[in-house]
Amino acid sequence: MKGFPEAARESLQDSQLRRNLAHATRTIREKRAGVVGELPDWEQLRDAGEAIKDRVLLGLDGYLEQLEEAVVRAGGQVHWARDADEANGIVCGLARDHGVDEVVKVKSIATDEIKLNEALATAGVRAVETDLAELIIQLDHDEPSHILVPAIHKNRAEIRELFLRELDVDDLSDDPGALTDAARRHLRRKFLDARMGISGANFGIADTGAVCVVESEGNGRMCTTLPEVLVTVMGIEKLLPSWRDLEVFLQLLPRSSTGERMNPYTSFWTGVREGDGPREFHLVLLDNGRTATLADETGRQALRCIRCSACLNSCPVYSRTGGHAYQSVYPGPIGAILTPQLKELREGRSLPWASSLCGACYEVCPVKIDIPRVLVHLRGKVVDDERDKPVPDPERLAMGALAKAFSTRRNYERAQRLGRAGQFPFVRRGRIERLPGPLAGWTAMRDLRPLPKQTFRDWWRERERVP
Amino acid sequence: MPPVAIRVSLVSAREEVLARVRSALGDSRGREVEVPRGYRSRDESSRAQVVERFAERVADYQATVRRAGSGQLAAVLAEACRERGASRLGVPPGLPPDWRPEGVELVADEQLSPHGLDELDGALTGCAVAIAETGTVVLDGGAGQGRRALSLVPDYHLCVVSEEQIVGLVPEAVGRLGEAAREGRPLTFVSGPSATSDIELSRVEGVHGPRKLDVVIVP
After folding, report:
1. Could you say which of B135, B200, B208 has the minimum Cβ distance to residue A218?
2. A425: how many CB neighbours lie within 10 A of its CB?
3. ipTM
4. Which of A8, A245, A398, B112 could staple A321 via S-S, CB 3.0–4.6 A?
5. Can you give the pTM of this predicted structure?
């Protein structure tokens, strides 16, 4: 895996991407600001949202057992998965048991996280993404670049060409309405005949056992209503203690996410309901690094996230690099603290530095995740982790040398003398623009001022000598 | 010889995940968190203002809003159907008798297949609760609302809302829906017709859910 700086460099060279991103992030940012400004009690809602999610996290084991009991009581089945492989095994097993070779899917980042579609393909099951943007991504074998609008890096002409190539259409204009209509016709056949649906979940309600999907297009309703069998993959942190708590989150989420007062459709179902919807419901509760994240007292607040993507749109880094640079299904500021934690620092180690720590993400977060604080905390964890490596890297060597130089006056002055002598080949027109070897990274982004001929200390000593 | 008991020493995923949660939380496990609920929980506006706001906010979503005086409902429904060119509507069990628009064929939804629903011009339903602040109608599958597929598959949703069903704020609606939620009824919050902004963020009204939504408010 590349580091963030290398991956970002590629994205930054794509001028089309930068234009699309600038437009998208600005538009959603402005819409969000408008509808958030309408509510006089927005800050109180954020305080409540933060506290409810903290309550969930600190009592997670009890709430999970409560949810399980309620779902089972309502005729659903609950499965537990320690990791991605286990979750995929459960879903593939269900597909096999029901003899289906195609499933319809609602956009779900949890299933992207575990690479469920690939696992299903290996098991001979085609997963059809039904969210318009996810469909575009899937048809083009691409990767999502934004939590809310995953195909934001593509323009209408590209989508038209893709649909002409992949969908059964003769002629098509590049008007978004016409493109949407083509997708509607393509997917309608799939919905009406689907035997198994797969979804994620925005919320699971511990006291009633209800599971909730928040969406706009109606594909979520189709997938969770029409098939005989419904399988929902839900991260264990997506719980709310009680039905009442929705009075907070049904205000926080749509306004933060799409910048609407309310999204077109929000669906709740509890187990199975005679004569209404699927006859079989399976809920897969997914850990996959969440309990490891929970163990970190500072980092665990990342699990409050309700995937609204407001932090992406407000981030000066994300709005230039886009999502692909983060190389994770969770991009942007939240991804920078979630990915390394879910992967227990095995991946995404450069992500905590993919931020200027400006704090705009914290400002807009509906559940008040202090992202800058967690970023700094994770930087510390990565550095501590590096310290334990047997072979030190150049940064550690440089820091070691600096520590030594600053430890005594004598060392400091000696280092200054050495520096003054050693810098001579690199000084050009009064600046150091390029340093050699492992030090080149420092000057790649900035010029250095050379050490002056006379330092302050030299000057002071000289001044003392003057009678 | 007694049967040999085979001990499976593997811990189940359930036990392991729960154990991981408990060990991750350590001392902080179960610590009570006070939830400050200082947000608005009641809209103090007058009934007329609440109804008016609901009508405005629904219209903001490109849905059509009509008002029907007492005794006028069937005629207003018929007019809406005429304008939308809908001549065959699916209806749920328990539709009140005075909701039957003239000149429109009403097809009872007795477990029609998805394809059967797809052949209808639209669906006529009531709702459980409506929210003024967000322009939302909520269906809970109760009398006159039908199952979820009915208001989903047909391309046109005609929804009747009575004034007393309209509340001001989201918390009021969540409160009113508490019983339905505890009974485990499926709930659908509908705010305007289906929509997408997935292509260059330009908004398209009408994707998979009904592309047209009309709301009729009755006293």
Report:
1. B208
2. 8
3. 0.94
4. A8
5. 0.92
